[in-house]
Design brief:
Number of helices: 20
Strand content: 5-15%
Largest sheet: 8 strands, parallel, barrel
Radius of gyration: 26 Å
Bound molecules: 4-O-methyl-beta-D-glucopyranuronic acid
Structural class: alpha/beta
Mean pLDDT: 96
Number of strands: 18
Low-confidence stretches: none
Strand order of the largest sheet: 7-10-11-12-13-14-15-16
Oligomer: single chain
Distance between the termini: 41 Å
C-alpha cells in the first residue's frame, strides 16, 4: 500500500517547473535563524522536509548568514534585528500573523519569513512551502497574513475504547484499550498537519464523556495526556479535554455536582490546579451538558450559566477557557404537540442567558438549529447573542452527508453559512463578522469542527474528504477565501499542478454537495435517514421514532410549518428582516421551503415545476451527477497514482449504487403517497 495518501496536502513532491525551481533553489541555499523554541524547531524541520522533497535541496542552517543568498527566519519577540528588517509592516502583524518578504541587499535577494511570535513564524513557513509547491512564484510578495478568527479548533468525538462517535475513517488515533496511545509519531504527524493549515486548538475526546474518559483529568491519565499536550504545544496547538459535568459525583468523591455547592466548586478548583501542574498551557474544557442524556446543571435546578461559570471560575486563574455547547433540546418530543419544535430549543435555552456568562466562557453553536443536515438555515442564536463569546460549530465528519463513502465537499455549504446575513445590526451583519468578533467585540470567538480524522492510512476514509479537513481550517483562518480557491490549492498540494487534473477535480468537488442534496432529502427537510447510524434512506425513520424529528409528509403535502402565523413560531427567532422572509411561502428561499412550510405536492416552484415533479427531477438528476463524477475521475487515470485512482474509483462506484437506492426509495415513497406520476414517465418502482 502506498503511503502517499497518508501525507495529505504535505506531499512535498518534486516541482516540475524548472525555471521556478531554479529560482527557489538559489534563494533557499541556506537558512538563518537565531531563535530556538519548540515551535521554531518545528518550523525549521518542516522547511528541511519540504525543501528536500520539492526542490531536492538540503539547506545549511546557521545563526549567521554564511552564503550570500539565504532565507531569514525570525520573530519580533525573539530577534531584535527582525523589527529593523520589517519597518512599518510590523504594526500589521497580529499575535499569530506572519510576513513573507523579499529583501534586496547589495543587489542580493534574500527572503524573510517572520512572525510576531513563533506561532506566526510557523504559519509563515507552511505558507511559504505552499507557495513553492503550487508553483505560485514570488511575485505576490510581500505577503502579510493574520488569521481572521482567534480560535480555530477541531473537536474529536473519540472514545478511549478506540471507537469514534460518528467516525468514518477507522479507529481513534489517540486511544487503545482505554489507554492513551504510545504511537506518538502519528500524533506528531497529525499536529504538523493541523498546524500547516493554522489550527490552534484541539479537544481530544468525545463530548459524550463516558466512564474512562471522565478520568482523563485524574492521575490515572494526566501524565499521558501531558505527553500529547507537549506534541501539540510544539505546533502551537492548545489541548482541551471534554469533561463530564457530573465528575465530582462520577469519581465517587462527592454526593452532588450542583454548580452552586461550595464543595463542588472547590472540587473543580482543585482539579484545575492539578491539571495545570502537568500542563501549564492547558486550553480548558469542552462541555456537553443537559443534552441527549448527559448530566448538567438542570439536575440541580440551575442554569447553564451557573454551570459554565463554575467551571470558568476554576480555570480562570490559569488562563483556561470553558467552551460550552448549545446543542440542548428535548429529544423526546410528542408528535401531537405542534408547538414544540426542536429547532427552537437552542435559542430558547440560551438567549435569555445572553450576558450572564463569565468572561472566559464561550458558547459553541452548531451552524444550524437542528443537527448538521445537508441543508439547514443558520442558527438564530448567531446574531441573537450579543454579549456572549461565540464559537461556530461545523461538522467535517460526514454524519449526514455521505459518511465519507460519498464525495461531498462541504466548503460551499460552510461559505453559505458564513455569508448569511443575520441582520443583527442592520444589513451586512454576516455570520463571519459575528464569529470573528468584528460586530460585537467580545473577548473570545472562533471556529470549531467535529473532525473527520481516524486511523485509516489516509486519515479520512475517502481520500477526497481530506479536502474538507483542509478547507475547514483554511476558512477558519480566512473566511473570505472562496470555495474555488481552497479547492484549487488543496488539489495542487495533494495531486499535482497539471491544469487538466486541477480543473477536473475542482469540478468534481464544487458540485458534490449539490449532487448529494439532489438524491437525498429535498428542500431543507432533512432527516430522511435510518435512525441511529444515519446512513442510507429511510423516509419515515425519524417520523415515527420516539426521538421525534418530523417532516410531516402525508398524501397532500410535506414540510413543517415553522412560521409565526400558523406554525411553531421558529421563524420569529430571527431578526425581523430575516423573519419576514422565512414567514411567507412566497419569500422563503426555495432551498429551505420545506424546512419552514408545509407545502402541497402540486405547488408550483419558481422554476415552474410542481413540488412533486421537482422531487422526481432532482432525484433522477442526482444519480446522473454521481455517474458523471465517475466519468470525470476516469479521465484522470494517467494523471494520478494507481492506488489513489483505484481507491477513489471504488468509493465513487459505491456512491453511484447508493445514490440509486436513495433515488428509488424517495421517489417511490412520494409516488405512492400522492399517486401523481412522473411527467417524464421515468421508472419509479
Ligand atoms: O448529531 C448528534 C450526533 C451525536 C452527537 C450529538 C452532539 C456526540 O448524532 O452522535 O453526540 O449530535 O452533537 O452532541
Amino acid at each position: 500500500k502506498s503511503t502517499s495518501m497518508y501525507k495529505c496536502w504535505l506531499k512535498y513532491y518534486k516541482l516540475e517547473n524548472k525555471k521556478l525551481s531554479g529560482e527557489y533553489k538559489n534563494l533557499l541555499k541556506s537558512i538563518v535563524i537565531k531563535e530556538n523554541t519548540a515551535i521554531t524547531q518545528s518550523a525549521v524541520n518542516e522547511l528541511k522536509r519540504g525543501l528536500a522533497g520539492i526542490l531536492g535541496i538540503r539547506p545549511e542552517i546557521s545563526e549567521e548568514p554564511a552564503k550570500p543568498a539565504f532565507l531569514m527566519l525570525g520573530t519580533l519577540s525573539g530577534n531584535k534585528s527582525i523589527a529593523g528588517l520589517l519597518g512599518r509592516e510590523k504594526q500589521n502583524l497580529g499575535e499569530e500573523g506572519f510576513i513573507i518578504k523579499l529583501l534586496t541587499e547589495n543587489e542580493q535577494k534574500q527572503l524573510l519569513v517572520a512572525g510576531k511570535t513563533d506561532r506566526g513564524l510557523l504559519y509563515g513557513v507552511f505558507s511559504l512551502l505552499r507557495l513553492i509547491q503550487t508553483g505560485t512564484g514570488l511575485d505576490g510578495l510581500p505577503r502579510i497574513e493574520n488569521p481572521v478568527n482567534q480560535l480555530r479548533m477541531v473537536n474529536h468525538w473519540d472514545n478511549m475504547d478506540r471507537s469514534i462517535e460518528r467516525g468514518y475513517a477507522g479507529k481513534s488515533i489517540f486511544y487503545k484499550n482505554n489507554k492513551i496511545t504510545g504511537n506518538l509519531a502519528r500524533i506528531s504527524d497529525y499536529a504538523r498537519m493541523l498546524a500547516s493549515v493554522g489550527i490552534n486548538a484541539i479537544a481530544i475526546n468525545n463530548v459524550n464523556v463516558h466512564k474512562f474518559e471522565t478520568l482523563l483529568i485524574t492521575d490515572r491519565y494526566i501524565k499521558d495526556a501531558a505527553k500529547l499536550n507537549e506534541i501539540f504545544r510544539s505546533y502551537g496547538i492548545k489541548l482541551f479535554l471534554s469533561i463530564n459535568f457530573a465528575s465530582p459525583l462520577s469519581t465517587g468523591e462527592l454526593f452532588t455536582a450542583d454548580p452552586l455547592d461550595k464543595e463542588v466548586r472547590k472540587w473543580w478548583k482543585n482539579r484545575a490546579e492539578f491539571i495545570y501542574a502537568y500542563m501549564p498551557d492547558f486550553g480548558g474544557f469542552l462541555v456537553k451538558a443537559d443534552s441527549e442524556g448527559r448530566p448538567g446543571p438542570f439536575t440541580y435546578g440551575r442554569t447553564h450559566a451557573d454551570g459554565a461559570n463554575m467551571l470558568a471560575e476554576a480555570l480562570k486563574p490559569h488562563g483556561g477557557l470553558v467552551i460550552w455547547r448549545c446543542f440542548v433540546y428535548n429529544c423526546l418530543q410528542d408528535w401531537r404537540d405542534r408547538t414544540i419544535d426542536r429547532a427552537k430549543a437552542a435559542y430558547d435555552h440560551f438567549m435569555p442567558l445572553d450576558g450572564a456568562f463569565a468572561e472566559n466562557v464561550l458558547l459553541q453553536i452548531k451552524n444550524g438549529p437542528m443537527d448538521f443536515q445537508v441543508r439547514e438555515p443558520v442558527s438564530p442564536l448567531i446574531g441573537g447573542l450579543e454579549k456572549t463569546n461565540q464559537v461556530l460549530e461545523l461538522q467535517t465528519t460526514q454524519e449526514y452527508t455521505g459518511q465519507q463513502k460519498h464525495l461531498c465537499y462541504l466548503v460551499p455549504m460552510w461559505k453559505e453559512v458564513l455569508d448569511f446575513d443575520t441582520c443583527a445590526k442592520g444589513r451586512g451583519t454576516s455570520v463571519k463578522k459575528i464569529i470573528s468578533r468584528e460586530v460585537f467585540k467580545n473577548k473570545y470567538g472562533g471556529f470549531a469542527t467535529v473532525t473527520n480524522i481516524g486511523d485509516d492510512t489516509n486519515w479520512t476514509g475517502h481520500q477526497m474528504a481530506q479536502a474538507n479537513t483542509f478547507g475547514y481550517a483554511r476558512l477558519a483562518w480566512d473566511p473570505e477565501l472562496t470555495s474555488e480557491e481552497i479547492a484549487e490549492s488543496w488539489i495542487r498540494l495533494t495531486y499535482s499542478n497539471d491544469r487538466i487534473l486541477v480543473d477536473t477535480i475542482k469540478d468534481m468537488l464544487l458540485g458534490s454537495w449539490r449532487t448529494y442534496e439532489n438524491y437525498t432529502s429535498p428542500l431543507g427537510i432533512g432527516w430522511m435517514v435510518n435512525p441511529n447510524h444515519h446512513y442510507g434512506p429511510n423516509v419515515d425513520g425519524y417520523e415515527y421514532d420516539k426521538w421525534g424529528t418530523y417532516h410531516r409528509a402525508d398524501h397532500k403535502g410535506i414540510g413543517v410549518d415553522r412560521n409565526v402565523r400558523n406554525g411553531t413560531g421558529y421563524a420569529g427567532q430571527y431578526h425581523k428582516e430575516v423573519a419576514r422572509l422565512y414567514e411567507n411561502v412566497e419569500t422563503c428561499p426555495e432551498e429551505l421551503l420545506l424546512f419552514f412550510h408545509y407545502i402541497p405536492y402540486d405547488y408550483r416552484l419558481k422554476s415552474g415545476e410542481t413540488l412533486i415533479q421537482y422531487i422526481y427531477n432532482t432525484h433522477f438528476e442526482g444519480v446522473e451527477q454521481a455517474e458523471e463524477l465517475k466519468r470525470k475521475w476516469e479521465s484522470l487515470k494517467d494523471k494520478v497514482e494507481e492506488d489513489v485512482f483505484g481507491h477513489v474509483m471504488e468509493r465513487l462506484e459505491g456512491q453511484i449504487t447508493h445514490s440509486k437506492e436513495w433515488r428509488d426509495i424517495i421517489n417511490t415513497y412520494f409516488f405512492r403517497k400522492t399517486g401523481i406520476p412522473d411527467e417524464l414517465g421515468r421508472k419509479i418502482y
